[in-house]
Amino acid sequence: MGARLTVLSRRWCHLCDELLAGLEPLARELDFAIDVIDVDERPELEEPYGELVPVVLAGDLALCHYRLDIEAIRAYRRKIG
Asked: Which terminus, N or C, of the chain has the lesser number of Cβ atoms within 10 Å?
């Protein structure tokens, strides 16, 4: 795998489920690994990201939140090579 994306999620979040379902095939296509972090298990993430979940991060860079932005993911992949 080339690069990694992190998805900040919650177990009970239907938007999170939808985002992950769309991101997984895209990540395979673009050679991204995906790490999923449950915000409810990481209190330090609640303040900066709690209202934005689901969030797709590339390092500290938020690529999208609430809904999957396929073009933002593709643009990031092009940027990093």
From this structure: C
- Confidence at residue 81, expressed as pLDDT on a 0 to 100 scale: 87
Closest CA to 73 of 51, 65, 11: 65
Six token digits for residue 53: 């979940």
Whether residue 55 contacts residue 7, with contact meaning beta carbons closer than 8 Å, is answered with yes
pTM: predicted TM-score of the whole model, two decimal places: 0.93
Q: Are strands 61-65 and 32-38 parallel, antiparallel or unpaired?
A: unpaired
Residue 52 identity (one-letter amino acid) = L
In this structure, the strands spanning 61-65 and 3-9 are: unpaired
DSSP 54: S
| CATH code, 74 | 3.40.30.10
Structural domains in the chain (count): 1
